[in-house]
User: What shape does this take?
Amino acid sequence: MIQDTVKKTSVALEQVVLNAMNILLIRDTSEMAGLPKVFENDYGELFKFIGENALKPGKVMAFYLNYQDPITLEAAVEVDRVPEQLSGRIKSKVIEGGDAVVAHYTGPYEEMETPYNEIAKWLKENDKQARELPFEVYLNEPSQVKDKYELKTDVYQLLK
Assistant: This one.
């Protein structure tokens, strides 16, 4: 008997109500191949600032402002509050809450178009419109995962 060794991604869609979030972020650019290093540096800087300011971190996320090389992105972390003083490249914004669809994706980052395509299909089938850019929330750490097909990412799309 031949065993199926082809690994597959999975996507499960869910409609949710997203609470408003305080976000700290760093806007950056990178070639696709350089993304891991950019994220390592940006999240390192964000978490150092979070620790120095006794903030409580929440979701670790990214917003992609474009998808062509060089990619423009915002590495971001949800925090319980935004301090009065920000430093260096760190900026803040508030994501207004509301109705959203979330794609719970399991699989490699190289196949991230899969959850985005599922969201686009869902929007069309449910006669809904997107509000603002979608964003990715990383649920596990790539350096802690043995198989890239075990990476878990939630892709949120706010709805009008």
User: Anything to note?
Assistant: DSSP finds two helices and eight strands in the chain. The helical segments are 35-52, 113-125.
